Amino acid sequence: MPQRWTLYNRLNQDKEGGLQKLLGELELEIMERMWEREQHGPGEEPAEPSGATVRDIATELQATRQIAYTTVMTVMGNLAEKGLLTRTALDKKTHLYRVALSREEFLDRASRRMVDRMVEDFGDVALARFIETVEQVDPERFEQLLRHVEELRSQQPHDSHQSQQPQQPQPEDPEQAGQSAQRG
Length: 184
Fold this sequence. Notes:
The protein is mainly alpha-helical. The chain has 8 helices and 2 strands. It has a two-stranded antiparallel ribbon. Helix 1 packs across helix 8 (174-181), helix 3 (25-40) packs across helix 5 (69-81) and helix 4 packs across helix 5 (69-81). The radius of gyration is 18 Å and the shape is elongated.
């Protein structure tokens, strides 16, 4: 089956929210812990953005489930390769992982790629369906969507979003994330 159909099949899964459709269960659990650390540090008190070692995350996960350190290490390495985490060597064996993309940034980039792929794959049919869906939205939500679009436009350079190439590693394409999510 072509890779793109894998993405479309994952999007049709009966799961709540977009993140559960884009990341595997363990990937999502690790990212939720990393995002929490980014917002509040490892404890309850708000702190400066922080990172975590594999040992830190494995210890947290092992408090609620049985999981091998090496499994956590592999998944965190995969998340770094996908561009969701950064990895800095502390010594020969230990790395500090930090959040590279916030939850919102990840969802924004994944959504953009999916919409771009849908339009690339299905052209005017996809655009017509998007318009049809938007026309069915209640007026209050439609106004919220318009404000959101304007906010997104104000954050973007004036040239096409297709030509943007951020300096940090890009998150993996959603369809590739779906394949590795089944392992994670």
